[in-house]
Fold each of these.
Amino acid sequence: MLSPDQSHLQTAATMPKHNSLLRTKTSSFFSSCFLYAAGTSASFLLAWAFWSFFSSPAPSANPSFSRGLASEAALSCPAGKAGHNRSYDPPDPTFYDDPELSYTIEKTIKNWDEKRREWLEKHPSFAAGAADRILMVTGSQATPCKNPIGDHLLLRFFKNKVDYCRIHGYDIFYNTVLLQPKMFSFWAKMPAVKAVMLAHPEAEWIWWVDSDAAFTDMDFTLPLDRYKAHNLVVHGWPHLIHKEKSWTGLNAGVFLMRNCQWSMDFMEEWASMGPQAPEYDKWGVIQRTTFKDKTFPESDDQTGLAYLILKEREKWGNKIYMEDEYYFEGYWMEIVGTLESITDAYTGIEKRERRLRRRHAERVGESYGKVWEEHLKDAGYGRGSWRRPFMTHFTGCQPCSGDHNQMYSGQSCWEAMQIALNFADNQVLRRYGFVHRDLLDTSTVLPLPFDYPASDLVGGAS
Ligand SMILES: *[C@@H]1O[C@H](CO)[C@@H](O)[C@H](O)[C@H]1NC(C)=O
């Protein structure tokens, strides 16, 4: 699906950005709730199997064991997250009952703020906490990857996002179909984000994250306070857009969008530059005339976003926050080489700080994130920092198609992904009592001794 012209993207990209021409196509409905429930029952079954295998009395013969499970189930399953009532949907009509309302990107939505507010009023158990609620959306194509290890890599990238969401209590939606058949590749996220906004009136923020981006700091959380007056947040550098007129002055592969009427209107205008729209060709010309470093003729979502920020400041730009203070997403080439020394710096802090060596339940991990911050005041944030980079984006690697930028070898992409994903996985596994000693050794872990790293790891070669 890459045209010869688009192949410029692969060879010319020098910046974090444009990730993927072949990136997203879309669709299966997987709520995180479903994943969570499936995960819970899988571990339950596993525990059950172990117990039945190793203990001679049947579990039912062990009253404390079965009572423990039962009471835990009563506490955590039916009530759901934070007391949300998932079995309560009163009969009074809401926007869902309006036959004119459409989830498709082509049809305009009006008065969405009122509609959403009315829904929340009728569902009070979801109204509490709605102001900060985040739902992550990501996805990949509907068919198997061409790259033989592509589907494995996508699975690992997805696991990374599920881990991050579980740790912070966010829901996640993974889409694998094109909701608008002509909106291929990087255009596919717009119809998906719109549909998700309608499906999740309880969420204030929709966080689109490309399939080839990985969280590499599992503790860091978005500084939402900073974005109070804005409706869209992207990683970007205002001077590169406004002065240099560079289409790589921002990255459209990761963004945070408020679930509100402004966003519905904005996406309508943004999507009007897409391949399904009558003026697609015209927009390709305008984008290339405006952003001289854009080498391929087709209109693309990232240049479209840069265009609206540059030319429609009053109408849109003032509500768009260009985040450049931390790795809202960061270019993997700049990041991966630093992960070993960052690991050493963090291990050094743990050796000095007893509180960070204390074992704890994953659910209460955010309180340890705060302890980390006390030790990271001098670490800095972006390039040159020794803080864990928040998100590492494998722009140009194309894990699914394998059609990576010719600037680097496929092998360097796949290895860098293993390093970043294992670096992240170590932060997760730590709370399960294990660690990958070698970031390039995906399959092997060692058990962590009590009080690690004040005590040493035993066994395994590095
Ligand atoms: C959910 O709402 C239903 C209907 O009002 C109610 O019967 C039920 O007790 C509620 N469940 C919880 C967990 O609040």
Amino acid sequence: MQTVRGSCHLSVALRGVTRPIVNLQVSGQRRLPLHLRAVDVQAQNRETSQATQDAAARETMFNRIAPVYDQMNDVLSLGQHRVWKRMAVKWSRARAGQRALDVCCGSGDIAFLLAQAVGPSGEVVGLDFAQDMLDDASGREDERVPSVMERSAPMEWVAGDALRLPFDDASFGAATMGYGLRNVTDIPLALSELHRVLQPGASVAVLDFNNNPNPLIDGFQEFALANAVVPLARSFGVAEDYEYLRPSIKRFPSGAQQEQLAYAAGFTMAVHYPVGFGLMGCLVATKSGS
Ligand SMILES: C[S@@+](CC[C@H](N)C(=O)[O-])C[C@H]1O[C@@H](n2cnc3c(N)ncnc32)[C@H](O)[C@@H]1O
């Protein structure tokens, strides 16, 4: 990984951030006749180029909403997102002295909480592919009050792809991901990358909206998104960027499906907890201890 370190602990993985990111595994390819193989490769190329475009579009969108992102979260959740993020950090079991990772860190809310959890003897890395989000995060780091800084771990901000984490195997004692899994173009790959970089016995807590199968909660969520979230986003000039929320939640695996995906990624324990009256959810997945 090529990195550039700035004065505010900003490190940038150059670049390949929007590289092709679909899972290219094609089982039994060698047994296929040549003309069928050619067809498969073309289909893969189409899929790869679609995923690349999707990832690039999302990166652009998150850079665009970065200036209003924190304010929107506070207003829309009535400040509750701070409580849910604290719960995620607790569920990650981040402890004093550990090196912890926050993937899709955005402007750094969860990374800052992790930094308090692991304390001055620990270390926190926040990773995101939207540079404007990372700039906000590192700016906020400089603004922290001295008493909080003294109790917090040193932090590093890395520009990189959740689907190709630029870290060694088993290099983190805990990890978090807030509102990121729904946005990646390959969820199984994102989970297997998290599994790879965690140490044996370590956990990741993945907080996001919940694709709740309960029709009452789902109906309320649909109503709230259409009648509160999108209109508010309109007043911030980012309505179009928030219209994607509902379809992205409906496409997102349910809690039970997320547990299955975590097992398939190699985790030996996976539990999805409903949060915020079931509107949100947190997948807690633990890597085998041996
Ligand atoms: C909704 S924001 C969440 C930010 C923060 N975790 C929070 O909870 O407030 C999602 C973040 O995921 C990042 N993201 C989405 N896909 C990514 C990927 N493949 N690699 C790295 N970051 C990604 C976006 O840039 C964005 O900052």
